[in-house]
Amino acid sequence: MDRTKDRRNPLTCAAVLVALTALVALNPGCAWFNQMAAKSAGWTKFVSTDGGFSVQVPTEPNAQTRTVPTDVGHLAMKIYVSEDPAGASAYAVVYTDYPRALMAKATPQQILDGSADEAKANPNQEVKEFRESWMGNVPGRSMEIHDKRGFVTHSRVYLAGSRLYSVAATVPADRPNSGHVDMFLDSFQILDR
Fold it and tell me: Are residues 101 and 126 in contact, defined by beta-carbon separation less than 8 angstroms?
């Protein structure tokens, strides 16, 4: 079934965002360490002024836009994917702007909690962890998804106003966190818009 053609409940758009992010793809607690680790690993800072974010990536991200139909209209999802030079891991940032009609129908908590719905419903993967996460005063959720293909996706989802961000690192299950996963996730910053 072509999922881009079905009408989605707007509350599960967060789940679609996480699923798309997962498909395309050492926190000692200080930004200085992450910047130094990124420089030593050959990673660079990527800034999306349109997307309103910055993140450390191993290679220049490829960007694309995918449109998903919902009950409140079509939502455009902007997708940025960076692969490690060996091609074994993918690092992605996906965002979408929700219309006011949707924001009026759901609380931020409902939207964020909906981010795991599709991941939990997929029989080819298992959500091992799902918890509340914050970036300053921006609410979010963190999850770890294991799939049957042998990959683990570490994902954080944030709702900043009406913009939903999904930040995910997908790595081989035999290398679940080489330090790059935390470095990538912790380097993500929402810029003033």
Answer: no
H-run or E-run covering 104: helix 100-105
DSSP-assigned letters across all residues of 116-157: GHHHHH-TTEEEEEEEEEEETTEEEEEEEEEETTSEEEEEEE
Structural element, H or E, at residue 12:
none
Establish how many alpha carbons lie within 13 A of residue 137's alpha carbon, considering only the half-sphere containing its beta carbon: 1
Report residue 18's pLDDT band, with 50, 70 and 90 as the boundaries: low
* Phi-psi domain of 73 (left: phi exceeds 0; alpha: psi -120 through 50; beta: other): left
Burial environment of residue 68 by CB neighbours within 10 A (0 to 12, 13 to 18, 19 or more): buried
Alpha carbons 114 and 15: distance in angstroms, whole number: 6
* Strand-strand pairing, 151-160 and 189-190: unpaired
How many residues are present in the chain? 193
The closest of 128, 189, 127, 120 to 158, measured between CA atoms, is 189
Cα–Cα nearest to 140, from 175, 193, 170, 185? 185
* 25 vs 119, residue with greater confidence: 119
Query: What is the structure's pLDDT at 24?
Result: 45
Q: Map tokens 């981010």 to a residue.
A: 115
